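Example record used in the benchmark description.
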Amino acid sequence: MGKKEDEQIAPHCDFIHVHEAVVKQVLEVMPAGEELQKLAEFFRIFGDSTRIRILYALSESELCVCDIASLLGMGQSAISHQLRILKQMRLVKFRRDGKSVLYSLADSHIETILAQGMEHIGE
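Model output (structure tokens):
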């Protein structure tokens, strides 16, 4: 196999040998498929730059839809759509204040995930 072909595939063992003890150990602690599917759906939400921008804005301050739309230079309906998705995934929460509806991050885990993601891409 040439160097170009080598760069296109992940490195792998030169022979087939399953390390059964290690595989068994990992299988014992690996979450069930349904849990891993939910985790994949959770991280899929972070795959949209608009949602990431909204989450970052909300990590700085509680904001209403109008504030977020102005901040991101987008329409209120587009922001509302993204907030609905974020709310369904329990990443944001809201409260009423008179005629305003203010959004904020659901909990500090979201800030941690964002910070760790930024740290990872900065490496």
